[in-house]
Each structure stands twice: as structure tokens, then as C-alpha cells.
Structures
1.
Amino acid sequence: MLAPQSTAPQSVTLEPYRPPVLPAGKVCQMVVASVGDDGIIYGMTRNAGFVNTEKEFEQLVENIQQHVKSLGHQQPYTWKLGEGCAVRGSDMLWHRGKVLEVFGGCVKVRYIDQGFIEKIPVCHIFPTVLFEEVPQLCIPCQLYGLLPVGNVWQPDAVHLLKELLQHRYINVDIMELPKDPKEKMLVQIHFDGMSLATIMEHHQHAVQDKSVMLTKQHILKLADDELEDFDFSYKGLEVDEPAIGFYTYPVVPDKGKLFPVIVKHLETPNVVYITLDDMQAKLDSEDLKEALERVNQHADSLPPLSDFSAGAPCLAKYSDGQYYRAKLAGFENLNPVKLLIIHVDFGSMDTLTTDRLRQIPAELLNFPCQAIKVNLAGFRPPAIDDETERVPYKPEWSLEALWTMLSLLQGKKLLAFRVYCM
């Protein structure tokens, strides 16, 4: 058992605790203890190759509870900023702390082994330093190359970070270790196959730091200049790059001209997905079907999706076990991560986890989308509607109206003409 080092109140010192032990490698796994209002992430390493601070924390808390029993009654004390202390937290357990601010009958303290800050009545803190030979067990981490919008992390952005990270295991790429181990470690974070930076950018809470990107480009250029006299062979080292591009759509006949269509899917009674029913569309459909069959023979070996921006093309695994063309519509859930996708050849939507999404081969971008989203002219919800069952995502429409339009249109061969194009 660790031997506690307790000092009398009059000898409580500033900065009494040792800094955390930083990982020696470039990658590690952490459990996130807390996220600060300034966007700093406090994590404990848990890899077998590093100090397993998660286990050490459990043992330390147990030892502290035993030691605090012998401290006796608290005497009046004048607190100073930066002092070490014992804190009785909201979990009714004692923890190691550090004084950040003193006001009235309360003290603002940081739990040094978990990172978070709390305002505590003075009756719940004790002027003593516990187990000072044990380093702080959480490492402050800052996201590398990512700037909060407005240069300050807004409350909704911090809320999202907490929802995504707290008490969760994450994979961490260590980009830069601090010169002072008490300072922040620069990291990139990945979980469920996704980059945290991508999620924060998608929600418009942050942007890439251009100065970091320029620095990296400058370093790469210097490296190229230094190596230009050497003869390198890259044979066998090539990797397939993710497909870059977007889907195309078939050309719809001019305004006022009749053309045959098949209704593929109804979103609402007046918003539907159609496919053209002409010879070229049929040929494209057959060629696409053959290409998808070829891709599905090895689809599980395709790289997982890495671009999670809205509208990004991908392959999505359907309930029949086959992959079909799709595009991302947005994030549906964050814990666990689930994304909303649209099947571009059918019009239907689905919510999938990241392991059911793959990068799309470039050849599948050559075929135009089979489903075209259109609005039906002359249809709108009634001003008065006594139906109680409503379409959940469009409550202005009743389910009865949706079922009626489904029976009239779904899968039917019809004639259409364009009256307006946005």
C-alpha cells in the first residue's frame, strides 16, 4: 500500500504534486475523465505498455479513504491559490485537489487526478497534501490543429465534447509532447473509426488551423528538397486513394415535355423520388447492377469510410447484406456514432453505424443516380385535418395521406412533365 505523506496545515505548499507521466510512444488508448470549459481533455492512459493510470486511480482513491480517517477535525485555515488539499467530492469520497480560487465560504478546486473543477464549501476540503510521491494521474490534452470558432470553445461545443468523450475509451495519436510535463499534450483523437476533428468541423464548432497545415507542408517541402538527389522506388507501396468526387444525375426533359417515370420512394405525399423510364436509363441501370455485383464480391475488404462530410458518396450495407450506393445526410446519433444516409438509387434513408459504411470505388461514380427527388406540383397539406396520426418527421401531413399516395404512386409507371426547376 502507498505510504501517505501528510503535512500540517501551516506547511501546505504550492504546486505540491508531481506532474503526470507522459506516454513514451506515438499512440495510446485513454479513458476520458473530464472535459474542461476551455476544451481541454483530461485522460488516463490504460495501455499495458504504459502506466495504467485508470487502475492506479482506483487504488489511490481507496488508499485516500483509509488515510483521511486519521486526519482528525479541521481547524480554521486561510487558503492560498495553488495549494494542495483533500477534497470531499459530490460522490462523497475524498480526492486529491488543488485550490484555484477562494471566495466567501467556498473554494474552487481542481481534482488533480480527474481534471474537472468544482466549487466546494470550505467544510468539505482539508488542508493536507496526500500521496505527494504519486504523479497526477490525468494528462491534459489539447486537440492538435483545430481552432474553436471565435477562438473560444462555446458552451454548446463543450457540451458536445463531453457527450462524445467523457468516461469513454478513445484512441489517441500523440502529435507533440509538452516540454513541461505539466502543460498540455497535443493530440488527435479517434473513436468508432472517426476523427473527433471531423465531427467538430461538421457541427461548425471548429476549423482547421491553417498555420499548422502550412507548417506541415513546409516541412514536407524541405524533406523533398533534401532527398531530391536520391533514387527511390515506390513499387509495392502504392495504396488506393479514396474516391474523390460526387454523384451525377440524369438529364430531365425540358419544361412541358411528357416523359415516362417510375416512382421509387415517397418521403411525404408531395415529395417523391422518381427514376426515368427511358432506354438510356434502363441501360445505365443494368450496367450499374453489374458493377455493384462485382464490387460486392469483395466489399468487406474495401477501406472504411473516412470522409464524413454531408453529401459525401459512400457504400452502405443494407439489411440483405449487400452494399449499395449512398451519400451522407448527417449525424443521427453520437454515442454510439450513427449516420443518416440516403440510398441514391432508391431514395430511401437509413441510419447506420460506421462499420457498415465503405469508401466507394471510383467506377461507381460514373453512373448517374437512379433516384431523382422531385416535388409534386399542386399538392400541399390541408388547412384543416382531423386525422390524429401524423407523419413523425413532417407532422403537417397525416399518415392517412401518406398511405393513400403510396397506394397510388409507389412502383407505378407514370407520365410526368416538369413545370418548374429550382
2.
Amino acid sequence: MGNKSWVDIFEAINGHDFVHKLLDFGDAFISECVIPENNILWQDVFNSMLHVIKSFDKNFYKETYPSIPVWYNSNIRVGMKTLFIKSWYKKGVRLIDDFLDDKGNLLSHNLFQHKFDIQVCILQYNSVLSAISTHLKLFENKGVFNRAFSPYIPLFYKPLILQTKCTKSVYKQLNVNHDIPTSVSKWNLDPVAYGIEICVKDAFTVCFKTTKDSIIQWLQYRILHRILPVNYYLKKINVVSFDCCTFCNDEVETIQHVFIGCEKLSILWSNLSMHIYKTTSKRIGFNVLNILLGELPLLKGNRIVNFLILYTKQYIFSCLKKKKTNCQDSWNYCSIYTTNTRLKNVLHIRI
């Protein structure tokens, strides 16, 4: 950890002992002691760290439960309060492993006193033991207990300390989520989806698999999360007082209406499909589902279709922002590809 520049800075500000406590204690130490005592910058840093710590699932704890810290652990409480007994900590009591014998069973009061050469109130010890025991019940079938012969790496920082660059590990940890986002589940319920079940993973990755253009990626992200600044959304958040379509001025300007429903733009998709057919002799159909979410599933042959859809949507949205109402007439299909020959070659190979 000494090579991590932010830790060096934090240690210079707060001292070596404080950094050791950060490694020895649980998540509640960050929320109860670290964050309130620091400025906005460090509050943000440690709020992020806390988010990483709380993202670990039960399987992670199950495999490493002996190294779970006892002090300031939000899951080990007595009387609704986290634990910290200074005299025990000074004697080296830090982890659940310190309360276990060689077979993984909880130590008796006498054995614990003998192990750490400390006098402990039996009522206090039983309270702590009860809290630990309750927490361990979460890990049924913990498996064979193997005590480490070397000091444990601090549990919450193990994925970070063992790697020179930990940003990728943190990113993956924060994105381990199998829940369906509310925005996508709404697409499943929306009548425009025709009841077709959407593959969440594909819907969110289709853009990144198709192009590295950050402008296009940001556009599709806002469409998927229903936060694209169309008039319906802007009125909803009190930015504008009207929600009529910029192009037709007849209906409410929703995401679906702008890209699919507006009569002034519907011909654009038909013309694009015809242009591709005349150029390549390939028939590509554009519909409500693939215009909004992409051509799914993610197959190699669908990449060019998604490319065309994404850049056409970017053109439409650009016209919307500029209030250019005649975009269906001035759309240059060759702006996506430099020549019709290149378009023909790409389609011939991949479809």
C-alpha cells in the first residue's frame, strides 16, 4: 500500500497509526470515524471506498470469514452498536480468527484470556461472542477451516493490495450486478416493445460493441435510461413549459416519438433502407425495437445494422437540438461511410 500515492498523502495528513486502523477495522470505521473528520475531497474518496466494501457478496465473505474484522464491523453489533474495545485491540485482537481455535470453533472465555494474556469480563466476552456467532450463521457450510500461517491481508483491501493497478478490479466489483435496471424493465412493459423480452446485457453493450465514439455511446446510454433531453423529459423536470414535438409540433416529444413516431421523420428510415438496398442489394428492416435498443442478439452480422441505426439517431438528435425541422430532406447517407463501395464491401462480408 506504500506505493499508492493517495495512501501516502492520507498517511501524511492523518498519521501512520490512523492508516493502520483503516486496515484493521471494518466498514463502520470509515462511515463513523473517517468521513466525518475529513474535508469534502476525502469524504468523496472514502464514500467511494465504502461503496466498494459493501459491494462484496456473501461468497466472498464465506471464503475469507476468518479475516473479517470484528471492530467497527456494521454486521457485528451489540445493542445496535458496532464494537471497539481498546484494551483488546492493544493486545492484538482484531479479526474473527482471533476468537477461533485450530478447528474453527469459538474459544471459551478462559482460552481467550490465556491466548491474549488479558483479563476479560465474562459477560462482556459472551456479548461479543454472541454477536460474532450471529454473524457467522450467515455463512452456512463454511467449509474446512484453514488457518493462515502468515498474517491475514486486510479483508476489504485484499483485491486492491495484491495488484499494482487496482482500478479495473474496482470497476468490475462495482459492476457485478444481475438486477434488471428499472429503465430497461420499463422497456419490457412498454407497448412499443411488442412484448418481446429484452436481453439486458446486450441492450447495454450493443453500442460499445459497435463503436468507440463517445458521443454515440452517451446518446444511447441516455436513451436506454430514458434521460435524453426531449421536451417530454425537460417539462417533467421543469426546464421547459411545453412538450410538443420540435419537428411536427403536433404530438408530445417523447424518445419513441422523436426516433420512430414522428411523421416528418418516418420517411427517413424508409429512405435509408431503400438506399442500402439499391447500393448493396441487401434488405435491412428498421423497426421500433432495433431503432431504440439495437439489433439483438449481438451477432457479428448485426454490427453494421447497429452502426447505421446509432449514427442515424445521432443525426436526428443533432437536428433536434438545432431545431432543424427539415432533416429528413438533407440527410446525407454517405456521411456514415466515405463511399458506397465501402458500404457494399462491409455489408457483403458481415451480413
3.
Amino acid sequence: MFSFRSSTILMRIVQHLFFFLALLFAPVQATYLNVTVNNTDPSIQFSSGWNSCPDISPPDGLSYGGTRNCTSQYGTNATFTFTGVVVYYIAPHFTADGDVLTVLQLDSEPLVVVNLTQAQGQSLDWAIRWAASGLKNGTHTLVIYGPSNTMTPSSTWGEVNAFM
């Protein structure tokens, strides 16, 4: 038989169960924060052959933070490791007779060729030149390649300015 005490205990158990079920089905709202990382951040690892390239405007655009790393050496790469759901590649625009290209690869996906040449009407200053969104929240690796006979076009220039 139930006593007053046992019914009180049963009521508390039901209340706690209801509370935990409400938490289980309550919507969860995640808050994300954009963090900008420039070319000097230790989360970017450079192979040998990369150089610090200060702004030379004109003729080329202004870099985010005033400096960038670049390479024209074959077989070089830079690796940016980050945690998040989106990544933006930031670089200045370049004036050139031909195209100024850089090649990116996110999480071993197919290579992406990014044209850094200034289009008509564009500012020369830095801008978001490429982005990937909808990523699974976790650790990702973005590789920026310098020229390579097998992996990238011949007019490729390795360029690391900033990421967000």
C-alpha cells in the first residue's frame, strides 16, 4: 500500500523524469564565433620554400594584417588546421598580365583553383577569395599548394594571407 511518504517520493521521481525528458527534447542552440587567423599564426604550418611577402601596393593589393607568405617554389605547401563549420580564405587581389592562381584542398577533397587576379572594378585590397561552409563541426585541414608539376596549374603561386 502507498503511504503519503511513498507517493511524495513517486511524485518527485516523476518530476525529475519529466525535467530530464524536457531537456532531452529541448532545442539546443549553438553559438559560433568567427576567428581571423593571419599568416603568422602557429596553426599554419609551412613547408620549406615559403617567404614572408610584405605588401607592395601598387601594383598589388594590400594584405590582411600587412604581410603574407608566398612561394613560387615547386612542391611546397602550407597546412592550416582548424576546428569549426566554415572556413574563409583571405588574400589580396593581384594585377597581372595573366592569371595569378593558388590551389587549395580541404580535408583531402578535390583540389580547388582560386584565381587571385583583380577583376575589372574590384578593389586591390584583401578580400574573401574562397569559402567552404556546412562542414561538420570538428577538426579540418586546409592545404595551400605552391606550384607543382603534377598537382597544380603551371601559373600557380602559393599565397597565404589569412583565414577566418
4.
Amino acid sequence: MANTPAIGYKFDDISEINTSKDAWAVVATPIRLWVVPSFSGKKLPYSMELVLMDAKGGKIHASVRQSLIYKFQPLMNEGRVYQISSFGVEESRGDFRTTGHGYKINFQFSTSVRLVKDLPINRSPYSFMPLSDVALNNPDSYYLIDVMGILTGYSEELEFEKDGKKNKKMTIEIEQDGVRMECAFFGNYVAEVLGQIAAGDKNNAVIVIQLAKIKPFRGKISLQNAYGSTRILFNPDVEGANSLRQRFLEAHEPAAQVLNHLPNSGKISVSDDFLKRHWGKTVEQIKNMRANLKPSQSFSIPLEHNRTIEHNKQNALLATGSWGMRAWILESEVCLRPPW
């Protein structure tokens, strides 16, 4: 581990990274680093994930596969600066994209990671989206976002069962310049959030949620945590926090500054999320539309995120849901199947 970048070595801006060449090298800091647990219940984690940022503010997602976690996890910490080179690059896909970059980095066995001490990156790790934009402008829910607001309410802990396993949920409400929005937390996040509320000054507290997932449901936009990537901070020392609190205090009478008790409605079913969020056509409507088609004909309907749904007599794809779930009409049968 070297303390200085290689002399005379040319480093690339993160914003320039693509698949046009193999040799890339960046100087960047992990602004978020987390380990994804095994989905099969095994002790070994599934992967290590990072969000890297360079001195110009460019951000890109990076992944370390299971077999290489032992090699890179001891070398990297959030907030420190590293020279990283000899990594793979691929297009960024999926429903949980941590940056707007069109590509992502994959660490390989040959990837080099060197600590850099004399090139600090003194930039905010957050890219805050105003709650008004989240609520009114229908942002792409594939991308995780950073938000900031005043805590105005929270629910009690709720236990529920999903796929035979017990889980926990709680919800908070935040406000930013007159716009209020709920954010749901699941699993280990519940104890973390309730612990921070119990331990800190929760009255007019500034809340920062880093890498939150946008959840449109039944005409309402809310937020929730995304696996292990999301981070919630109470009264952090970040730019804009004090001015946000001051505007809130000026806009509300003291009586209105008391925290609301939010009802906890429990889990949202997969079928409700799939049908309400992504498409308004019923199965009967699709069948009627197909009835007038000849076997060689097909039709398509625009779907969000620049996708289309194509239909024909033999096999009609209805929609792609929150987790890549698909619905198919096969004669009179409707099947839902997950991407794995």
C-alpha cells in the first residue's frame, strides 16, 4: 500500500469511464461501502459493494464478488482516498442503481488498490434531491437518491411474516419546505432508526437518508431502505441542515412541531406492488386486445423507463415489475415469475 500516487501516472475522471478501453485508473474515495449478505442464508457474504467518488464529484458503483472480498475488504474504508486500477467495466443495470453513471466497475484479482494520503477529496458525498422533485416530477425509481428533511413523525415497530420468515418494519415522515414524505425501514434498519430516535434530540431533527429507494404505490410516492446500501443520519453536520431547520421553525407554530404518530399499515403485497405500480391494463382488457389480432400481428404499449410491452397471439408479455418480475398470458393462464 503506497502513500502517494505513482509519479507521472495519468488518472482518469470517473465520468469518462466506459467500455471503450481496458486500462482505466482512478483516484477516488468510497463514499459508501457495504457487504451484501448471502441470499441463501450462508455465512459467507454475497458481495461487497461501493460507491466511489473522485475529486471532480464523479460517482460510479463498484462491486467485489464473493471470492475476492477477503482480498479487498481489509484494504478499503469509507472516507479514505485510493488509487484504483486494472478493473473491469460493464454497463450499469438493475433496479437499485446507486449513481447516474451508465457504467459500473468490477474488481478483479489483478485490480490494484493503493492508499493515497496527500490527495484529499474534500467534497460532500451527497447529491440531495428536493422532496418536491421526488413527489411531483416522477423521478426514475431505478436510481437510489439522497434526501434531507425535518423529522415530523414516526411509527411503532411492526412485526410481520414474509415467505415464512419474520421481519420488522417502521416508518418515519420527513418534511422539506412544506413537502412531506414517508420512508419505510425494514429488518435491521428498524432497531437502528428507533435507537437513534430514542437516543437523540428528535424534536425538529434534521434527517439525511443516503441511497434511498423511491417507491410509487397507489398514486403516492414514498421512500424505503434498499438492502444494506441505505444510510440514515440524525442531525448530521452537512451543508444546508441548519438553514432547513430554521425555515421549518419559521414556517410552523410550536404546536405544529410536535411529532406525529404514524400508523403502521404492514407489508405491501407483491401482487399489489406489481399491478398498481407498473401498468393499469387488466388481464381481461389484454385478452380482448389480443382477440382481434391475427397470429402474425403484434402490438406494443409504451412503458416507463423507455421500455415497451409487445403482445401477440402466442405469448403476451404484460409488464416488468419492481424486481424484474414478469407476467405472461399463455392461452387463459396468467403466470408471474421472478427473474431468478
